[in-house]
Specification:
Blueprint lengths: L2 E5 L1 H14 L4 E2 L10 H11 L3 E4 L2 H7 L6 E4 L16 E5 L2 H6 L4 E5 L14 H7 L4 E8 L10 H14 L6 E5 L3 H10 L4 E6 L1 H5 L5 E13 L4 E2 L4 E2 L4 E7 L16 H15 L5 E6 L2 E5 L7 E7 L10 E4 L10 E4 L1
Parallel strand pairs: 1-18, 2-9, 3-4, 4-5, 5-6, 6-7, 7-8, 8-9
Antiparallel strand pairs: 1-10, 10-13, 10-17, 11-12, 13-16, 14-15, 14-17, 15-16
Helix pairs in contact: 6-7
């Protein structure tokens, strides 16, 4: 009995191919928990696609991925002096976001990230002159610009990249290859047409692996079902059942990521009102679970345990049976499944 990730493999791979066709030279990103699929599985998919490179989040991920993928390993987290050294093969490429970082990586393969409107990290325009002298001592693989997902101020992503192309050219820096993130296929194609001498490579993770929501499905197995009537006490905290129905023990708890949720950026009054409503219900121990039964998302009977969750299913719903599977609406990047099933 498990929390399972079911994959419609044919549909999933067809979506991957669509994205690969939209972004020639795409760099697949396989960081974190492997977008819910795991690093080893994604390494298999990247190898199958014929890509010569894969991007990972950290040097630790690169150290694991080197045993599963034989091509280049682009580490996205920028190098910092004093970081713990991790043994990596020569096919590893480090991202650097400062002149100091370039100076510290003599002889290494590097991608230099410039400061975008994300304002997270990157070389600033004022340091481009110093950078020109420093790149002689590294094996420069190209420049990179990491763009924001949303542009609430009305600015244009292509214009931002063009601005950096002009600055780099003015500083007499090589523009053979530029890595970009968070561009649409039309924007990507426009840049490639405008700068035919530069090879643009899109670093893509979410769109590639999770762009077709219908290709994957999480399901948790029902382990036990107990009949209760209103007022019956149950669970670790001996709370009272809110009505007649069933307590349903389902595979999937905090160790899987169930009940854990990353903060969300809220825009507009509707999303804010929903957030306030959820917070209000939580104060009276009413928390909606990600599990769906009989067409509805069901409430947690109590906070999820480490490996299972207990749900309350009211008697007007169909009675769950041991061995049934409940669909679970879970975020791939925060979920650890017990098993992956290819359909």
């Amino acid at each position: 009995m498990a929390l399972s990730l079911y994959v419609d493999t044919e549909r999933w791979r067809a979506h991957q191919q669509t994205v690969l066709n939209q972004f020639p030279g795409l760099v697949p990103v396989c960081k974190g928990n492997g977008y819910g699929f795991g690093h080893e599985r994604l390494a298999e998919e990247v190898t199958r696609s014929g890509s010569d490179i894969i991007a990972v989040g950290t040097t630790y991920e690169a150290a694991r991925m080197k045993d599963w993928f034989s091509g280049d390993l682009l580490v996205l987290t920028p190098f910092r002096r004093g970081e713990e050294p991790v043994p990596l093969p020569d096919r590893a490429i480090r991202t650097v976001s400062s002149v100091d970082g370039v100076n510290a990586l003599v002889g290494a393969r590097v991608v230099i990230e410039v400061m975008s409107s994300m304002k997270r990290h990157g070389v600033v325009e004022e340091d481009l002159g110093k950078l020109r002298a420093s790149i002689e001592d590294v094996r420069l693989e190209g420049f990179a610009i990491h763009l924001p997902l949303d542009r609430t101020d009305g600015t244009d992503a292509v214009d931002e990249v063009i601005g950096w192309m002009d600055r780099l050219r003015t500083a007499r820096l090589p523009l053979e290859k530029v890595f970009v993130s968070h561009l649409g296929p039309e924007e990507f194609a426009l840049l490639q047409r405008q700068f035919p001498q530069t090879r643009f490579r899109a670093r893509i993770g979410t769109r590639l692996w999770l762009g077709d929501h219908e290709a994957t499905r999480y399901r948790g197995s029902v382990l036990d079902v107990t009949r209760v009537v209103r007022g019956d006490r149950f669970g670790y905290r001996q709370q009272k059942a809110p009505g007649d129905g069933w307590l349903v023990v389902v595979a999937g708890g905090t160790s899987h990521g169930v009940g854990l949720e990353a903060p969300k950026a809220m825009h507009g009054m509707t999303s804010r009102a929903k957030g306030v409503a959820r917070a209000g219900l939580a104060t009276v121990n009413r928390n909606l679970s990600p599990f769906v039964w009989d067409g509805k998302q069901r409430w947690f009977a109590e906070p999820p345990h480490m490996q299972v969750s207990i749900l309350f299913v009211p008697e007007e719903a169909a009675e769950p049976k041991v061995g049934d599977e409940l669909t679970a609406i879970l975020r791939h990047t925060t979920t650890q499944h017990d098993r992956l099933v290819d359909n």
